[in-house]
C-alpha cells in the first residue's frame, strides 16, 4: 500500500470529492483524503493524503494558500463568482487608476473580517449554507477573521477603463479565506458591484504547481508502475517544524508515544517532529494540562 502525499492538479469542472473517488480507483486503496475543498470552477494545487499520510490532512488543510484570481468590477452575482446569477449591475463607464487599486489592495492586506458566502459549505444549524441558498433562503452567518499575507496587482496597466473592468491579482492567505468574498470586498471599496471572474490555486502549504500531476497523468504513471516518483513522503509535509533524531535514551518512550519532559523548541514552535532513519515517527506538542511536559499529537507506525 502507498503512503504519502500526492500533489494533485485539480482540473476545472471536478469537485474535490470527484478527485478522491477517481484516485481511490487508480491507487487501489480507500485510504485517500483531500486537504480542503476547491470549488468545481477552480483549478489548482490540491494535496492528497494517502495511507498513513491521512493523519496529516488537518495540517495541510490549515496551511497557507496562494491564488491567482481575476476580479471583475461592474457586476455582482449570487455566488460571488462567474457561475452565479446577476444580482446587481452597474454599466456606467468607469475609470480606475493603478494607484486607486493599489490603495484598496493595501487596505485589504493583513487581518480582515469576512462573511462566508451563502453558496459555501460552511455549516449553520447542521446544514451547509448552499443547501439553504438553493431553497432561496438567506441565513445570518457569523463573520470570521482571516489573514491576507499579500495581495499583489499583476500586470502593469496604469489606468483601467470601461463599463466592465477586470484585473488579475495574486493572493497569499490563511485557511478559510474566500477569494470570491475578497473580490466583492475589493468592489465595495471601489464603490462598485464585483465578483471573482476566475481563480487558480497556485500553492498549498509548501506544494506548488510544479510539484503537481493531473489525474490523467497519474493514471499513466500508475500503469507504468512508477507511483513512487510522484507520491511524496510524509516528511515533505512537515518541513516547517523542527525535526530531531530519536536517541538511544528516548527511543522506547517515543516509539510507545509516552508523555515526556517538554523539549525547549516547543517554547517557540507549536509542534516538533521526531524521526528515525529519516522517517517521521511522532509529532509532539505541549501537553495541554501538564506544565513542563509534552505529548504526541500524531504517531506514524512503521510500514512495509
Automatic annotation (TrEMBL):
EC number from the UniProt entry: 5.4.99.25
InterPro entries hit by this protein: PsdUridine_synth_cat_dom_sf (IPR020103), PsdUridine_synth_N (IPR002501), tRNA_psdUridine_synth_TruB (IPR014780), TruB_C (IPR032819)
Keyword set, alphabetical order: Isomerase, tRNA processing
Membrane-crossing segments per the record: none
SUPFAM superfamilies assigned to the protein according to its UniProt record, in alphabetical order: Pseudouridine synthase
Every tRNA pseudouridylate synthase B C-terminal domain range: 180-238
Domain Pseudouridine synthase II N-terminal: 24-179
Signal peptide extent: none
One Pfam family of this chain: TruB_C_2
CDD domains hit by this protein: PseudoU_synth_EcTruB
Active site: 39
Catalytically driven reaction(s): uridine(55) in tRNA = pseudouridine(55) in tRNA
Annotated HAMAP family: TruB_bact (MF_01080)
NCBIfam families per the UniProt record, alphabetical: TruB
Record family assignment: Belongs to the pseudouridine synthase TruB family. Type 1 subfamily.
Annotated function: Responsible for synthesis of pseudouridine from uracil-55 in the psi GC loop of transfer RNAs.
Protein name: tRNA pseudouridine synthase B
